[in-house]
Amino acid sequence: MPSKPGVLLVAHGSRQFISLHPLLCRFSKDDYPVHLVVIGDDIDGEAVKHTLASSDCPALPNIRVHDFTHMKEHHEDTHVGYLVKIIQPSIMIQIKPSTTSSNSVLLPMYHALQTMAEAHRITDIKLPEKEIVNALWIPDLSLEALKNWNRIEIKMVVITDRRPHSLSRLLQSSAKSIYLGDTVDLMIHMEQSADRVTRMLVNSFQWQYGQKILRHRIRKGGLMPAIVESWYPSHDNEYAVLLEDDIEVSPLFYVWSKYAILKYRYSGHREAHRLMYGVSLYAPRNLELIPAGRVTFDPNSVLLPAGHPEHMPYASQVPCSWGGVYFPEHWREFHSYLVRRLEDLNLPKDHQVRLISVPNSRSDKWKKSWKKYFIELVYLRGYVMLYPNFEGFEAFSTNHVEFGTHVKSEKRQSVIGTFMVPLMQRDTILSQLPAQRLPSFDELPVLDLWGKLQTMDSLEQVGSQYHQHISTCQRTFGTFDPREFFCVVDGPPDPPQEFPSSPKKPKPPVLVKEAVQPIQYNYITEYTEEEEEKDQDESLEYGPKPIDVAQLPNVDERVSNKDDERLDLEHDLDTLHRLYLKLYPEKLEFLVDERTIFEEDEEEDDDLLMKLA
Q1: Cα–Cα distance between 215 and 610 in angstroms, integer?
Q2: CA separation for the pair 315, 272 (Å, rounded)
Q3: What is the pLDDT of residues 580-593, one digit of tens each?
Q4: How many CA atoms lie within 13 A of 149 on its CB side?
Q5: Which of 87, 245, 416, 601 could bond to 167 as cystine, CB 3.0-4.6 Å?
Q6: Average pLDDT of the residues in 328-352
Q7: Per-residue model confidence (pLDDT) at position 368
Q8: Residue 521 has what pLDDT?
Q9: In what order do the strands lie in the sheet with 34-39?
């Protein structure tokens, strides 16, 4: 009679056993059996059992050791295959040989086990030996979740324009990241105005983890089309990490992403599958949707008083545009929603459905930002995104906030200081998480768009009430079909929302520079040979020279194609400066002139935060 399905780990020799030991000892739950197969001439089963006992391995009672070290050489795979038929494991974990060990004796055994796993429909998890320590969260997942290990496809999607230095920083940080032996495709989308250096960079960049796919727009689209059109999932197990070129990632961003996806998407929790639309890599330090403007924000100021443990990750409605993983069903729904929404905006006002406008959200003033419309969908559906909450805002992505050369150096320092967060370099994910695991979906604290503590039921109630306000269609659940939001309702439209804003700076004059200067013709009746030779020589020295069109000012880019959220940031530079000084009061000495501004506004910011609590 076959035993209960479980996990099978294969250690070929003492070195592999030492590498697998930390992972093996975390299988302390008795939900399913754990089998360890030891092969090789420098190890035996008794030594393995003694090592596990002497190291106080908490999983020892749940581990069954199978000693194949006495088998004849090249026959181990036959005996392991016989064992597999008896125990029928659901998961097999083995160490993936490195490229430098292609002629090793381990390679034939590795491929034999791989073929055996395919024949018996066993999920074969192949981990690089050095990256096993980054996958110690595997025992936290159910067998059902682990069965999807190889089905998940996480693509890196990079959107860039004409910032080759920033793009290089992002690509280099991505190339140094840990991918757990997975194949990860890199998709780079260049704007129409991408300069020559950017094009050369993406062409020459070597990506060793999967395919490198390049796209180049032939017409200027702006940030909203660039982001939204950069990815469309081909199936429900495809995910995208959306990254603009001024982002930098932690070496552990993929580890965090895959752990969270397996935990919340494949553990059988239907509500998590329906309501969670992504995983943030970034840890925000301020709230951007407050009607009065941005304020500093620490989630622990809300979570700790409510009884949640320290470093508790949380679910928030706010979509992250500074490094986030987005889920396929929700992204397809967003595409459909945005198509219908933009079509409606192009109709005459008397033919439009009631205008969708999230009450008291500053995003309502953004007209060209994709986040404005995603926030609308999130508000209507009650969707949430997972956010990290580690020590000192340590995160898996950070934003270098590169507005351009017109930002003064001292203002730029304050802007960067307000938004940049430290990147996690050493893997402390499990050691910082409460109970050394990601909490279940039901345990996650929930914050709304304004950073207030809510429940999933309260978000659903708010979304349901607003649905009745804008549409006569019946509300559905889990369909990912946004057409129900566009059924016409009677009554006058809501008045447009007004938000306080900082004084608008005068727009810079539009500079016009012609690529070729107009030629002035002088009609001469008589033209001697000497004059002709002289004119030819002068034309060679002073005539029209090639112009790098990448250096010409782009009026469309500066005026009509900028993302509203980014423009909102630029207009709020003074506010961001005060937030920086509030975050780092010890740095006030670097700008003495700002001390007065900071002291005057500190009390006002504290009052606003108290109202939000």
Answers
A1: 47
A2: 11
A3: 667 776 665 544 44
A4: 24
A5: 245
A6: 85
A7: 84
A8: 45
A9: 63-67, 34-39, 7-12, 91-96, 123-128
